Amino acid sequence: MGCLYKAIGSFTFFHSSNSITQNNYHNLVDNFDQGLDELRKLAEAYYLAGPDSVRNSAEEFFSEMDDDGDGYISRNEFQEFMRQIGDTKMTSSPVFWQLSSRGDEKLDFMDIMTLYYVMKSGRPFCDGTHCGGDLMRGAYFACRQCFYSSKSFCLCPECFMNKKHTHDPSHQFLDNFTLLEVKRQEAVLREAEASNQQASSVNIGIYERQENDNEQIAGSSSSASNPALPPSSLALVPIARRNKWKVAFRAFNSAVNYGFLASEVCNIL
């Protein structure tokens, strides 16, 4: 994945008064088309597969952005909309130029659907120090420890492999596909542990009831002949220790399940 400043040289997008030249635009497109094509295909798939109500809402959304009603979204209309929804990251990035499939500084309907997909799917910008905060169009690396925090930390492959970032070096980075699989397996582990604990509680309860019944039967049958004889071998084991057995058994089940899933994660990594 090429970095932004390598693609556009010394040209700067970050001033609204600047006008991009056709040559610079095509240089940019050459570097970003592949990733954006994938995003556009995903956005189009969601749109076409959605119900009529969703498609109608999408058309209304586009019309709201199109202030002058010319059927396209200009850069001014794009920036005004982003200001209204409070997305300063989008207004200060070259996303507008990257989205334009026409190359004429205007966005058509499917360009806007792609924009909506980028926003809705939470596509991050690179937090590295090398690429200038580029939008992630393909695979990227995310900090596992920061994944559920209010401020996640993501890197493009180039910033990650060249260690061009200032993040905590003790944190672990995973690409977005592996991270999704790890989180899925963690959820499976939690569900398995909950199921095992529930099953263990039921089985132990049944076992204890059977033991109590056996103790009562043994006690009634042997009390006349030898009242000092314990009715069951478990009678020699204090209740507190039997409770420790239960805890240890559950811990063992959890350890086995976790070890199996952890080994699968290691195979992936």
UniProtKB/TrEMBL annotation:
Q: Give the matching CDD domains.
A: EFh
The molecular function terms in GO held by this entry are: calcium ion binding
UniProt keyword Calcium present: yes
Taxonomy, superkingdom: Eukaryota
Q: PROSITE patterns, per this entry?
A: EF_HAND_1, EF_HAND_2
Q: Which Gene3D superfamilies match?
A: EF-hand
Which keywords belong to this entry? Calcium
Task: Identify the residues that the record assigns to the EF-hand domain, covering every copy.
Answer: 53-88
User: Protein name, please?
Assistant: Uncharacterized protein LOC111307151
